[in-house]
Amino acid sequence: MPTKDQKQIQEEDNRLYQKIRHQTKPIIGNNIPDSYGNIEPALEPAWALAVAGSSYIMWEKSTENLGYFMAQVKSVKQWIRKDDFIEFDYTVLLHEIPTQEVISCHMRLTWLPGHPLKVKYFCASENQGLEDGSGMESGSAAGILHERGANF
Asked: Taking the alpha carbons of 80, 38, 74, 67 in that order, is the dihedral positive or negative?
């Protein structure tokens, strides 16, 4: 299988960037892909960036005994910026192997072709809840990030 050269990669990056920049409205979406594995064409650029950004999270979280793959983008919202960078907020679900646990991660992604992808994130396991905190409802903040998504 032939590998892509740097020029091909730059051309593909620029096509993706131009597709996002020429949207008439910010990209907003949920459940990508849907339960049948379909991705709306208008959401494909957001999906492509989610794959790239989540790969950074998966690489950083992986260990000798744990691996990850991105199962789904639960939500995505594009932010409009005054500069040339594009910026998205995502909630992605990562599937942890071999535990089969689903990890929810909030990810803020900023990108401009020719520059490194910038990713900030916070992850919490799906089963994280009050039982992981103090065990008392009043005064416990455990589960708040999970319920509202990671806000930063």
From this structure: negative
pTM: 0.75
Pairing mode, strands 118-125 and 86-97: unpaired
- 10 Å CB burial of residue 88 (0-12, 13-18, 19+) is buried
Q: Which two tokens stand for residue 4?
A: 């892509």
Q: What are the Cα distances from residue 140, in Å, to 63, 91, 150?
A: 31, 23, 16
Which residues are CB-neighbours of 150 under 8 A, at least 6 positions away?
A: 105, 106, 121, 122, 123, 124
Averages of pLDDT over each 10 residues, the chain, 152 residues: 77 90 89 93 92 94 93 95 94 94 95 92 66 38 40 38
**Alpha-carbon distance values, 57 to 61, 74, 124 (Å):** 6, 16, 12
Put the strands of the sheet holding 118-125 in their side by side order. Answer: 28-32, 67-79, 86-97, 102-111, 118-125
